[in-house]
Amino acid sequence: MGPDYLSGVFGGVEYQPFSWLQILSDYDGTGVNAGAKLFTPETWLPYGMSAHLTYQAYSNSNTFNRDNQWVGIGLTLPLSGPNAAPRYIRPQSQQEGVDQQAPTINLQQASSVAQVKKEAAPANTEEVEKKVTAEKTAPTHSLTRLTQRLTAYGFENVSVGTRQDELVVQLENNLFNVNEIDSLGVVLGLINEEMSQPKFVFVLLNNNLPVVKVSGTQQDLNNLFDTDNLGQIPARTNLTITTNQLYKALDGVNWDSNRESSHLFKPRVIFSPSIYSTIGSEYGVFDYSLALATNVQVPVWTGAMVDVRHMLPISHSDDYADGERFGNSRHTSTVDRIMLHQGVTLPAGVMAQVSVGQIGTNYQGGTSEFRCNLSRYS
Fold first, then answer.
1. pTM of model > 0.85
2. Which of 217, 282, 289, 347 is the most exposed place for a label (fewest CB within 10 A)?
3. Which CA distances in Å does 8 have to 32, 33, 124?
């Protein structure tokens, strides 16, 4: 890549106008590169796989013997499969064999329980309905019960309160890491069962920073969780889901509970494989260096996280051995990342994160990332 590769200031920009297209540009220390990446739709490939094609169309790098135009093909396959845990299981069509995006098992079970309760209701339903109505119209009791149910489920930073005629809920999701949208379904289901206000606002947090707001009425939730509607693909909804003006979403709330089950100083340990590889080189068909990456992440305050990663070598091919062609590039037993990340929410739907520390085994410095939802301006 040349002696100036990743030397000094470098960075890149990605713009995704469609779910299947990304436009990329970066400066790597040797020159400016630009290209595009195409993605397959979610339903094209089985077993949760996805494929992409990358085309670098332009580069003004003058590095000797470097290809400034190239095409790459990638395939991503989840090692755990598309339905790794019961909370993610979805029925599949035997004819098509692909994910039909039906409601998650949590929503299906909730719907089944509600239907059983409805069918098993006693003959004197009027008295029961009065009792249920009385319980739901006791605002403080319902707020406390909702807080207890959300924390018991495993959500963190749970806050429940009211603002005029609105129920307001904010919480941190550290349960549904494969698809965070699943957490929205579970929380909205619990809100639907407990709310006594005509309107609601739900704010999803990441490291105590608001990232998504869902709002609507009690009738909207009733319609969403109606048995007939749950069978629709996708389910019909009038809910408003937005990532804009989140910094105003929690103004003026009278909190009944605030940040129950705090996420601070709770370490998360993440184990994952790390592989360096070459395919079809002049030295072999396939060469690799495999290691176990152990990542420890500890939230320390709002938006801030300490991130440490250790690499433990497991195996490598002959060409990654000492003295061989790729010997200097194989994994070593080392701590290759010690960083502090700080995220902030900015106006106009902009999210930013600044990271400083040891970025790689031989790199110390900082990075910054910005994310903006440009669709709000179109």
1. no
2. 282
3. 14, 16, 77
Q: pLDDT digit string (tens) for 208-266?
A: 999 899 999 998 888 888 766 555 545 566 789 888 777 778 889 999 998 898 999 99
| Cα three-residue angle 239-137-254, rounded to 5 degrees | 70
Residue 186, helix vs strand vs coil: helix
Cβ atoms within 10 Å, residue 11: 11
| 272 closest CA partner among 330, 311, 307, 320 | 311
Rounded CA separation 23/16 (Å): 6
Residue ranges per structural domain of the chain: 1-77, 99-260, 264-378
45-54, 137-146, 242-251, 277-286: lowest mean pLDDT where?
137-146
236 or 23, higher pLDDT = 23
Contact 72, 94 (CB under 8 A): no
* DSSP states along 117-133: HHHT--S-HHHHHHHHH
Residue 71 and residue 53 in contact, taking contact as beta carbons nearer than 8 Å: yes
Length of the chain (residues): 378
Determine the pLDDT at residue 360: 82
The span from the CA of 172 to the CA of 182, in Å, is 13
> Which residue type is seen at 117?
K
| CA nearest neighbour of 49 among 15, 104, 100, 99 | 99
Q: Are 172 and 259 in contact (CB under 8 A)?
A: no
**Structure tokens given for 375:** 């669709």
313: β partners: 291
Angstrom distance (rounded) from CA 170 to CA 187? 10
Q: What are phi and psi of 129, to 5 degrees?
A: -60, -40
